[in-house]
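task queued by scheduler; priority normal; single chain, no ligands, no partner chains; default sampling; output format set to structure tokens
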Amino acid sequence: MSSTARIAAPSIIEVRDLVKVYPAVRALDGVSLSITPGEVRGVIGENGAGKSTLMKILSGVERPTHGHVLLRGEEVQLRSPHDAQQRGIAMIHQELNLVDELSVADNIFLGREHTRGGLVAASAQRDAARQLLARVRSTVDPRRKVRALSIAEQQLVEIAKALSVEASILIMDEPTAVLTERETASLFDLIAQLKSQGVTILYISHILPEVLRVCDRVTVLRDGRLVTTIDAADATESDLARLMVGREMKDYYPAREPAGREVALRASDVTVPGWVEGATFEVRRGEILGFAGLIGAGRTELAEAVAGLRPMRSGTVERNGRPIVIRSPRDALRQGIAYLSEDRKGRGLTLDMGVAENITLVSLRAYCRPLIRRSMEARAAREHVRRLGIRCGPIRRAVRTLSGGNQQKVAIAKWLEMSPDVLILDEPTRGVDIGAKKEIYELIRDLARQGRACVFISSELPELLGVCHRIAVMRAGRIVNVLDGPSATEEQVMHLAAGVEGGEAKASNASKEVAA
């Protein structure tokens, strides 16, 4: 575990005694590190450890309270993202930073348009965009509007946009969070190619196997301080987890408790045009039903249809054995069905509002007499903060300033405030650290223990296998099988999701009716 493995190499970027203080929060506390040219440096830590703050300083989004940033041995003041880009530093943000109504090409060159005679040279710009997209193995038409792309396609556009400034230092914040295995492999090939060209990459991720696979060295932050920098070749996942949280991670997945017999929700022969074809599933009280599948399999679209966010062409939904009609999210909530979106910042939260305001946003009517009773609202919000372990400081603090894990807990609290009987959680652990994931698993287990029916959609197979009673596997809009969670394997799930011959596995005895 050495932080001096490359002591002889000159640094391309270095920070010394970096401190960043926000109101009531010391986000960075004397962090110093040095990175060499062509190095892939992992930066890990729990949410709130200071990773995002450090990256914001290096990309010019934030200014440090104290400390120094050196670029190629010279101290610099990074006053803005544009200033950082001019110096060869580009950042691919965890949350997409694209303009929905512009084309792919226009997004890639926004503010740096190809012009001829004072006008945008659209054809030349599209050609340049196409070349950049090819570098990230994307076949997206540069003329398409960004709003028409999948999240995975948008992520690749973000990477192409960062490459367009010919950066010598590339900061990647959770770049694979929404990518398929094939897209992730392509990204890793691209990282290797950039590394061979002398590009330095700072790689922030909560996916520890990825960090060990792609990084040369790994820097660990905890509570705003540097813990250590370790050679990836000398580390294990357990080493990194222990360094991140400061303790051994035992019993990572909570013990499953027996599910009830009563069916809380049943969806039959649901069809969503272009996405889902004849899907049937049921979830019982006290059960955690997982949904696995590749990107584009239809998991989110099926969930959105059941939650009233997307119209069904056909199909029925029953609650407690009784047919119901759901045409809107309001209808779903009236029936005790809540849906946590996979896009917590775009659809799950109002980022510039406070913690209390977000938690009570859906249930606000209950706090109006007729004006909003802020004291009642604050009491209710504080109870959720206590129960879910949300670390936020003042209850009116803007959600935007919280770590990813705490933002996710606020989004969950918003729906728990409605006391749903059925809670659909779409990628609830995406972009949160290993400690926050464990807390979310325990929260889902506790909700099931209370008799609620939980639907858990995830792209991380280990957590589905570790948490769920049963796992429904989707492929091309259909549920192809339902597996018993404790006995299923990653290989079975992947074979079913990818349509590999020989991947058929025995479905759970409790789930005999599966869509063909």
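post-processing summary
- The longest helix spans residues 181-196.
- DSSP finds 17 helices and 22 strands in the chain.
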